[in-house]
Design a protein that fits this description.
Length: about 270
C-alpha cells in the first residue's frame, strides 16, 4: 500500500478504518498498519476507529492559499483571462489563481469551461454565458480538487483549446511541483488534453520545490507570473526554450492594466 494514498484519503476526510479500507480497496488490517506508520512519521494522529491529519502538515487549503499574494494572483488572472477567446474550450485546474481566472470569465459569454476545482466551479455556478462542465471524481477537500480514476476518465475524452494549470512550485525544465501523486497525475492529463498549456504561478512559486511530486509539462508551454521574480529565477526562465514567460505587474498601479495586456517576450529586457 502506498502511504501517500492513505494520507491523501485521511486529509480528504475519509478517517474511519472501515471507510479507508473500502475507498482504497485494501484490508482494514493493512489500513491500521499504515496509519500506525503514518503516526510514527508525524503525519496523522490516531483516534478511536481511525485517524485525523496531524495539524503540522505543510499543505495549505485552497481558501488559505487564496489569501497569500492575492494581488499578484489577481493581476495574473486578469492577463490569463485575456488569453481566452469567446469560442474556446478552457480547462481550469483547481487552485486559488485559477479561481480568480474563473471570476474574470464569469462575465463573459461563449466559452466552455471544464474544471477539476471546487473554486472555479463555485465562481462560475451562476455565470449564464459560460457552459460549465465539472469533471467530477474524488474530492480532495483541503485542496478543493477532483482526482482519481473518474476524473482521469473524463479528461481522457476532452480536447481543450487552452489549459490553465496552478502550481505549488514551478521549476523551468522540471515542471509543476505538487503535494501528492494524484494531483500531479491530474495536472499532467489536463496539460496533455489541451492544445495550449499556460501555467499560472505568482513569483513566490517560481523555483520552489517544497513537495516530492512533479507534474511534467509535456512540451512547449507558457508561464504567467508577476514581476517580483528574483534574478536567478528570471535567468532560469530565459534558459528554458520550452517556456514562454509572460510577466505582469504585481500590483494594480497606474498603467498596470495596459502592461498586463502585453506579454513579456523572450530575449527582451525584464521590467
Amino acid at each position: 500500500m502506498r502511504h501517500q494514498q492513505l494520507l491523501d484519503a485521511v486529509t480528504d476526510g475519509v478517517q474511519r478504518v472501515e471507510d479507508l479500507a473500502q475507498a482504497l480497496g485494501i484490508s482494514p488490517s493493512t489500513v491500521r498498519r499504515g496509519l500506525t506508520e503514518l503516526e510514527q512519521a508525524g503525519k496523522v494522529v490516531r483516534t478511536h476507529g481511525g485517524a485525523v491529519p496531524a495539524i503540522t502538515g505543510t499543505e495549505l487549503s485552497w481558501t488559505q492559499k487564496s489569501l497569500r499574494n492575492a494581488q499578484p494572483k489577481r493581476q495574473i488572472a486578469a492577463f490569463a483571462a485575456g488569453l481566452v477567446r469567446d469560442d474556446d474550450v478552457v480547462l481550469l485546474d483547481a487552485g486559488s489563481t485559477t479561481t480568480f481566472i474563473a471570476e474574470r470569465l464569469a462575465g463573459r459569454s461563449g466559452p466552455t469551461v471544464v474544471t477539476t476545482g471546487l473554486g472555479p466551479m463555485t465562481a462560475l455556478h451562476d455565470a449564464e454565458g459560460i457552459e460549465l462542465i465539472v469533471v467530477g471524481g474524488r474530492v480532495r477537500r483541503r485542496r478543493g480538487s477532483m482526482v482519481g480514476d473518474y476524473a482521469r476518465g473524463v479528461l481522457d475524452r476532452i480536447t481543450a483549446d487552452i489549459a490553465f494549470i496552478g502550481a505549488d512550485g514551478y521549476v523551468p525544465g522540471r515542471g509543476v511541483n505538487c503535494p501528492g501523486p494524484e494531483l500531479a497525475a491530474v495536472k499532467e492529463l489536463q496539460m496533455r488534453s489541451a492544445r495550449r498549456t499556460v501555467v499560472v504561478a505568482d513569483s513566490s512559486k517560481v523555483g520552489r520545490t517544497e513537495f516530492a511530486h512533479w507534474a511534467v509539462v509535456p512540451g512547449p508551454h507558457e508561464l504567467v507570473t508577476d514581476d517580483g521574480l528574483p534574478e536567478d529565477a528570471r535567468g532560469a526562465l530565459d534558459a528554458d526554450p520550452g517556456c514562454i514567460p509572460h510577466v505582469v505587474p504585481a500590483t494594480g498601479s497606474p498603467g498596470a492594466a495596459g502592461a498586463a495586456d502585453r506579454p513579456q517576450e523572450r530575449g527582451t529586457p525584464w521590467n
